[in-house]
Amino acid sequence: MRNLDLVSLRSFVAIIDAGGVTRAAGFLNLTQSAVSMQIKRLEDALGLSLLERSTRKLAPTAAGEQLIGYARKMLALNDEVFTRLTTPEAEGEIILGVPHDIVYPAIPPVLKAFNAEYPKMRVRLNSSFTKTLKEQFAQGECDLILTTEASADAGGETVAELPLVWIGAVGGSAWKARPLRLAFEQRCYFRAGVQAALDARGIAWEMAVDGGSTRAVEASVSADLAVHTVLAGSEPQAVERINHCGALPHLGAVKVNLYVADPVHSPAITALAGMIRQAYRLRAAQKPAATAA
Fold first, then answer.
1. Tell me: the pLDDT tens digits for 165-207?
2. 3-state SS of 217-279?
């Protein structure tokens, strides 16, 4: 079996990128004769001329143009394997803060993928309200957080913008009652905006569930005792989006923002942030933007 020499391939790629043997030798920290010898060895192994030498600036021949793409892939895979197997695995703990109402569906797949990539890194998921998470982040208690807000503060990056929708019991009628019975946690970011929207429409309301328990809110809504609001795509089980045909106010869209501690004390944090961005990009690509209800 014949095998291509990766060292010779690396010299060949360097010559193409640098435009000549002299500059390539400088990049590779080799002598010009050593680089020229490697190219000759590669051409002899393939039985092909890879460089057009009739011009002042070296350029690939037709065969060289075919080889360059393969060479880049082979070198990239070689470097990836070498880095993966010889670089010490990251160890430690990352604290990720996420509002409880957007943990699903994006975060579990992200955590699974991250664990496969960084098995020695422990991610501690802190699920709370946006206001609480921002306070903790400001105090250095979280390495990165997601928030649901109207806009991003300094240092924040919007990874998604989703409509806020009304939810109620499956086949329920609580949304028709007046005063409208609401169920919200005390520190829920959406609470004040929903109340203001109802006031602007002249719709009477009352707080049927007013506490700090997400479970209490979900149970009350699924029992058709009250209504609630969530970001589209984050509806809990046992409830459904209310098709109110304009009987309830339009609530607009809310941004999902990502904040990453600066400075970052571990490359693993940067990797986790990248996986979160990718998860929201995939969600946006997989389904068209939902219409606010």
1. 999 999 999 999 999 999 999 889 999 999 999 999 999 999 9
2. HHHHHHCCCCEEEEECCCCCCCEEECCCCCCCCCCCEEEEEEEECCCCCCHHHHHHHHHHHHH
C-alpha–C-alpha distance, residues 207 and 258, integer Å: 31
User: Facing residues of 249 across strands?
Assistant: none
**Burial zone of 263 (CB within 10 Å; 0-12 exposed, 13-18 middle, 19+ buried):** exposed
User: Is the confidence at residue 291, as pLDDT, over 90?
Assistant: no
Domains of the chain in start order, with CATH, are: 6-86 (1.10.10.10), 90-293 (3.40.190.290)
- Cα–Cα dist 91/77, whole Å: 24
Q: Over 70: is that where the pLDDT of 265 sits?
A: yes
Burial call 140-166: b when 16+ CB within 10 Å, e when fewer = eebbbbbbbbeebeeebeebbebbbbb
Do the strands 121-128 and 92-99 form a parallel or antiparallel pair, or are they unpaired?
Answer: parallel
Model pTM above 0.85: no
168: left (phi over 0), alpha (psi -120 to 50) or beta: beta
Q: Answer yes or no: are the C-beta atoms of 194 and 206 closer than 8 Å.
A: no
| Cα three-residue angle 19-22-24, rounded to 5 degrees | 60
